Amino acid sequence: MNAPARRLAALALFACLASCGGGGGDAPPAQPQSVTFAFRLRGLPASEEFRIATASPAFIAQVREQLRLPEAQRQLFVAGAIRAGGAGHNLAWSWHFADASLVQAAIELCDGRPSMVEANLPYWLDTVKSFCPWSSYAYAEIG
Fold this sequence. Notes:
Blueprint: H1 3-20, E1 35-41, E2 50-54, H2 57-67, E3 77-84, E4 95-97, E5 101-103, H3 114-119, H4 121-128, E6 130-131, E7 136-141
């Protein structure tokens, strides 16, 4: 192989390694980015808004799908375990969702308003242990 052909082959190999990820050690898999969503309750003031921060790809996709719909058609509501502390994203509430999903139905025991949870934290955190406000809907993606 002559010199120009060797250079061309080396350049092609370098381009392949760079584009195929073979140019070095194993990179750690990318961590999913956390996204925060705002939820509101139908027929209640914006002061009842709560937020959920998550890195769950399934939940993020589910909420984004709801957000693509007109607000009146967003029929799925939030349900999930709650924990003490606002976790830095849940506005002034002193609780947050530890995990959440969007559902079509849930038991009445966990239905309520964010202000009800706030007003009686021990009951909600120690007895109910979850929150599923039936009138909640995905309102916005915050970031």
